[in-house]
Structure formats: structure tokens, C-alpha cells
Amino acid sequence: MSDNWDIICVGAGSAGLPLAIRAAERGAKILQIDADNRIGGTMHWSSGQIAAAGTRLQKEAGIVDSPDEHYEDAQRVAHGNIDPTVMRLFVDNAAHTIDWMMDIGFKPAAGTPVAGEAHEAYSTRRYLWGDNAAISILDAFRPVHDKLVAEGKIDLRLEHRMTGLVTNDSGAVTGIKADTPNGEEIFHGKNVVLACGGYAAGPEMWNELNPEIPLCSHCNPYSRGDGLVAARELNAQIDGKEKFLCTFAGYLEDPNDPTSGEFLVMSPKARNIWEIFIDVNGKRFMKEDHQSIDYRERSLLKQPGMRMNIVFDEGILMNASPLTMLEPDAYKAKFGNHPNFVKSDTIEGLAKELGVPADALSTTVVDYNAAVDAKKDKEWDKFFLIRKIETGPFYGIKSMGITVLSPEGLQVDDNLRVLNTSGDAIPNLYAAGEVLGFGRTSGDAFVGGLSLTPALAFGKILGERLLSW
Ligand SMILES: Cc1cc2nc3c(=O)[nH]c(=O)nc-3n(C[C@H](O)[C@H](O)[C@H](O)COP(=O)(O)OP(=O)(O)OC[C@H]3O[C@@H](n4cnc5c(N)ncnc54)[C@H](O)[C@@H]3O)c2cc1C
């Protein structure tokens, strides 16, 4: 048994780091544990795109913006599905969070803020990032956090995995249990904050919460859903699975490992789309180069198993840039040598490799080639009609919707207290970050920055206010 901490923070990632820093700066006695052997969590993976209204950066660029406009704009993109309580708390605190990050060394990339980039655009320029994805944010936190740890103001324990919450007779949380290098330990504290991320790297948890959604994830391997498991023991309300949206698109590097997802480069902003996409019936099902990422994601979401096949020929392979992040030679070598990268000398053979009807695929290719000749795609209005699919070998990539975020999560009130299924706050238990569920902060769409920025903002809020609530 250890000391009685003011705050026990489970996780030293995007939410946990600002929390620990701000709490320690206010003199709180804080224990921070992380299952990993390093700090940073998903910041080691994330693109680091963040958003806020009313930042110093916006003001310096003459951009007039407000939390109310951010609220309305985000709900527009998310079809009104963002949790209103959480969104209100977020928009009112997001700008202070980014201003503070800049105070401690975060440098926005030149040209930011912008209205849109990877996702549907905002109506004004409030979207930004650093030069080195989310590592730019971690690099700003690290020296401040390191110093507080060195001064003994944050007791940081790495390779400590929380395995459960400890409660008293009246159900109030009084601490945590953790697997540590010394075996199981119990740590007692006045408040516990779950800042231990999502569950998209935990296939068991995923299959239990989202059995109908096939998993192809690319995320921090420590996102195993431990926070949800622990809070569920106390009857916490967990919801949001209906808000799932896949990212467009990826493939499983190891078909037997649902967490081995890798991205394909599919945005018409990043590369011309020379290829066609076909469904399980061998037919095209979408405008492959539609400018709206939301359209592309939803088109794929509707496919059985969120699966599609990308089809092209030798001429396209030789002339187009790779669809993977691999160098061209490594990319080309994958075909015929990886279960999801197939090739054949004939369209019929390719259909067999892809498991789609050969006559349907042949007709699809003939029709597409006619559209290229006519410079007009009457069926799907594809913009890039660059060359026909006519010279063998023919190639296919078995692709699917990829997951980087966990849709479900803990319900909280406007003080980030975790609520139970009756809607009551579980005493002394708080949560911040992806453990709240991506659906709670971003609805049923990818609203720019609305996972990482709420994690940062809610961590900062708890660090600053928890002890005075
Ligand atoms: C590839 C990718 C790109 C992304 N890009 C963006 C983007 O551009 N913009 C955006 O808004 N969002 C983005 N996201 C999502 C966003 O980065 C995350 O939602 C956010 O960083 C999560 O923060 P967190 O603090 O909740 O979790 P994390 O940062 O993952 O921190 C959780 C910490 O808890 C630790 N932990 C887990 N279980 C335990 C346990 N039982 N005991 C102790 N410690 C534990 C973990 O090791 C980890 O360090 C992206 C995600 C991915 C995967």
C-alpha cells in the first residue's frame, strides 16, 4: 500500500500529461502511472491535428472566431451527434489549451491554422498542427513534465498497468490496483482520473463492444480498453457504438492480426486516383476520387465487412505512385507475395484471386475502359480517367475500412465525473481523453482535431480544477 495521493492519474498520454503538469504546478500530490515504458501514449502515433476557436494564433492572423461558432460548426459536420455537455466544456477551453501549449514551446506549422485538411473542412481557419505530427506536442510537454518528475512533484511510475479500481463501502473510489514490476500493488488516492485511452488495440474488448464491425486497427498497442473494464465494474455508463465511422482505407498486414492495419494513400488530394474500387459483386460502388472524405468513408462503411478491392493493371502500376507508404520497389514486390496484394495475367484470374464473380469484373473493366475513351464516366462521374485497365498482369488490393479510434466510451458530466447507468456520478472518479469514446467528442464523423484536442483540454482542465471542485 502506498501514500494517499490527491490525484492518481492512470495514463501519461495526451490527456494525462497536461493533467499531471497543471496539477503538480498547483501543488497537488500526484501519482501518474503508465503501462508503457515511456510517456506520450498515442502522441507517438497521432497526426497531431488539433482545433480551437479564439486562439492567439487566430487573432494574430486576423481570424475572428468564437467557441459558439466552433460548437455549431462541429455539430454541423457531425450531424448534431456530439455530446452537447462535453462539446460545450471543450469549445470553451480549447483556445486556452493551445495558447498554453504555445507558451511552453509548441510551434504551429507555417500556414496554419487552416479550415480543412484530412477531414471535412470547418467554415473558418481554426485547424492546426506542428511540423512533426503529435510529437511536436509531446516535445513541448516533455521538458516541463521531466522537470516536475525530477523535482519529485509528479511521482511517475512506468510499466505500471492499472487492473482495477478500489472502492469503499459506500461505493466511492479510493484508489487503484496495478500490475507493477513488483507484482500487484494498491495505490490509494482522493481522486482517480482515467486517462488511459481507447480500446481499438484490444480485439477482445472490440469484439465484445462492436461485434458487427470488423477490426483493422492502426493505433497505440496500449489502447486496450482497461479504463472501460475498470469503470464497468462500478456500473459506469458506456455508450457510442452507433457513431462508428471507418477511416478510408487500409489493409491488414497480417490477416490473422486485427491490430496490424496499415493505411493506403487514397485521398485524391494526395495522389491521382488511377484505379477503380469494386465491391464483393465485382462492381464499382462509389466515385473513387470524390473530394469529400466523408462521402468516401460512408461509401465504404456501407459495404459488407467494410471491404473493397482496388483494381488496376501493369500500366497503372508502372506510372502511378504507390498506394502504400512503401517505396515503389517494395510496393511492387508485394503483389503475389502477400495475401492482400494479388495479381494475375487475366481479369478472370484476378477475379478469382479477389473472390468476386469473373463475368461481373470483366464487364466492370470493359465499361470503365469505355468511360476512359469517352472521357466521361456516366456511372460514377470519376474525375481521374487517366488510362484504361487493359494490360496484364492485372493487380488487386484487398482493402477495408481502417480504425484509429474507439467509438464507445464513458459518459461524464460537465466536471468530467464518470456517470453510472443511473446517471449519477461515481464519487471520486474522473475521465479524460479517448476513454470517453470518439463518438462523444466527434459524433458520427471525423471532425478535425476532435479527439486529440479534447484529450489535451480535458487533461488540462482536470489538472487545474479538480482539487477545487
Ligand atoms: C494514427 C492516428 C492518428 C490520429 N490523428 C489524430 C489527429 O490528427 N487529430 C485528432 O484529434 N486525433 C487523432 N488521433 C486520435 C488521438 O491522437 C487520440 O484519441 C488521443 O491522443 C488519445 O489521448 P488519450 O490521452 O486518451 O490516450 P493516450 O494518448 O493513448 O494515452 C493513454 C495512456 O494510458 C496508458 N495506459 C493504457 N492502459 C493503461 C493501464 N491499464 N494502466 C496504466 N496506463 C495505461 C497508455 O500506455 C497511454 O500512454 C489519431 C490516432 C491515431 C492512432
Descriptive report:
With 469 residues, the chain is of the alpha+beta class. The protein is built from 14 helices and 18 strands. The chain has helices at residues 16-25, 56-60, 67-77, 84-103, 135-150, 203-209, 226-232, 293-301, 314-319, 328-334, 347-354, 358-374, 438-442, 452-465; strands at 4-10, 30-34, 50-51, 127-128, 154-158, 161-167, 173-180, 183-194, 238-239, 247-252, 261-263, 276-278, 307-313, 341-344, 394-402, 409-410, 417-419, 425-431. The strands form four sheets. Strands 1, 2, 5, 6, 7, 8, 17 and 18 form an eight-stranded mixed beta sheet that branches. Strands 10, 11, 12, 13, 14 and 15 form a six-stranded antiparallel beta sheet that branches. Strands 3-4 form a two-stranded antiparallel sheet. Helix 1 packs parallel to helix 5 and helix 11 (347-354) packs across helix 12. The longest helix is centred in the N-terminal third of the chain and has 20 residues, at 84-103. The protein is elongated and about 70 Å long. The model has no long low-confidence stretch (mean pLDDT 97). The chain binds flavin-adenine dinucleotide (FAD). Flavin-adenine dinucleotide binds at residues 10-16, 33-36, 41-43, 45-49, 161-162, 195-197, 218-220, 222-224, 226, 404-405, 433-435, 449-453, 455.
